Description:
A: 133 residues; B: 2 domains; 10 helices; 45% helix
Amino acid sequence: MRGNVIQSDSMAAQGYSSSASSSGSSTTNLGDILERVLDKGLVIAGDIQVNLLDIELLTIKLRLVIASLDTARQVGIDWWEEDPWLSASATRRARARDGDGDSELEEENRRLRAKVRELESGQPGKSRDDERG
Amino acid sequence: MMSAADRPGIWVYALVDAGDDLTLPTVAGVAGAPVRTAPLRGHGSLTAVVSDADLAEFGEDALRSNLEDLDWLAAVAQAHHGVIEAVAHLGTVLPMRLATVYASEASMRAAVAGREPGLRAAMDRLRSRTEWGVKGYVAPAGETAAARATTPQVADDAAAGSGMAYLRRRRDALSAQRESWQGAADGARAAHAELGRHCAASRLHPPQSPQLSGRKEAMVLNGAYLLDNDRAAEFSAAVAALNDSDPRLRLELTGPWPPYSFTAQDA
Lengths: 133, 267
């Protein structure tokens, strides 16, 4: 899937009804589609009761989406509307996973700060912890 | 109407208004099944867009395990979306969440029974409107700043002791990255507020991970915006202007989308 690009004004369709072709899908990628069809859309209980929130599909969802959440919280952008996928259990499971990406970075950050403090405390007059936070 | 499937069930893609003079395009549904309309009796002109779905593949147990298979999920999701998108070209559409399956048309009608007012209201709210997406990423310029902070200063390092210097550089790099993320997040918040002035409704979705977005830059905005169709160009221009004016943030416009993000409210 190629990435999306900024669309020029002339490319902006006026909505489906007047767009010349079904070219909309050319600007969509699988991630965007999955996000929408799994999470959004009208919910009317079916005979086939597969609750997308409960089943292990959640592991896919976690792999794809939740990996970004710790990062988001760190920089204060956890300001989206409540998302059932991100329920308490989901968050717990995300945290229970081995950290990768940014959570790993954060952990490294903590370790390094501790190490810096340790080193600095070994030097006369440098024992004060001037790390912020 | 009977399918060749051993245990035919019904997969529902969307609800539409047959008053929109619906002539279904020839588009294959999930598992390549032909798509048809199924009137919802007692719901005026509300009509479901469905296909037969073999319950051996789409029944509860099968579905539960098939949904674990990312390749299967991707194919089904794209087929589901493809039908909804094709139908959206014809008129107002209420997209159903993936994996809405019934044992029969009769039980589908039973499930929808009594919901017409809410569905009608949703239909009216979405008429002549289209969903667009805007994703915002930390601008590559932020990475440049972070990279600069990690550039070795060889002479200083030799003097200061490489261990300390490494730790300091590493800390500076982390700090620079944090700052670029923070700046982009601030920009995203402002951009979302500005874009809200051009749309009928907006929703914020959680930012996608790099694995989902396919981009290595951190995503800081994942918004959905419901636009009057005649304001699409204006909105696109607003996105472009915001993109030009804020160097911290890189914005991308996606769409048009069927109104996935705006069906839930009244339904």
